[in-house]
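From the thread on structure requests for the teaching lab: each student submitted one protein with a one-line request. Submission from student K.M.:

"Model Polymerase nucleotidyl transferase domain-containing protein from uncultured Thermomicrobiales bacterium, tokens only."
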Amino acid sequence: MSGTDLLRLREEERDRLLDRLVASLERDERVVAAWLSGSLGRGTADAWSDVDVWVVVADAEAANVIEALPAFVAAVAHPVLVLEAPANAPPGGGYLLALYQGETGAHQIDWYWVPRSTARVPAGARVLFDRLGLLPEPAAAPFAEGERAAALTHAGADFWIAVLLAGKAVARRRPWAATRMIGWAAAALAEVEWLVAHDGPASHDDLKATGHEGRWAFPGLAPETQLAVLLRVAAAMAALAPDVAALGGETAPDGARQVSTFLDSVGDSLAPGLPSDGIGEA
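Reply posted by the TA:
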């Protein structure tokens, strides 16, 4: 099977699974509405995208449904794996991650359940059906005085700490730790960019929609390559400093310079002949 055929088959499998999901929900009288969030909601999905489905249940039935979530997800198809993660549940609702069988491998559905009284359809959602006419989620309120500057200051500090820890992992030749820290830094950079451009906090979906996860190519496992990506990410943040300062945020120039000097030292440490066994902690 060619790569193109495989991707087409995977999308077809997911679409069939989604059709079964919608049919199952529409048959359930306890369910009053459902929508898709994430990339399928935004219309940016590819063959590898999972399904994020929000199920709105009648208030009188919410407790009973949430007590029997595994049976609920099995009504669509037999899940090959189910993960409970209550921390992901919306207030008063429930959450399960379920994997379903496919010829091209597992298909993931993130299930969210929410009572009718608290359900609001977010911007960027794709409504599957709505029996009652749900209200849209209100637009995020603009920052109160000083909040935007404080958020910029915090996100900037978060960024430079992540860069420092990433550089430390690069110096110790711990590539997977470095990769995680680079991802942390990239997320913090995306938040600062959002805050510079928007007078309001960014939601998880807002940051996902920026495409920051795919903006920086995977740095690979070679320390020199990882350091090069780190330097580019740091340069992007440094370029934002005037905008951050204009909005009242603290740019911590001394801290940023010290972290940049640290990265220079990391680069010097990668020279041939220096130890590369990664010994050391913290």
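TA comment: The longest strand covers residues 107-115. The chain is about 50% helix and 15% strand.
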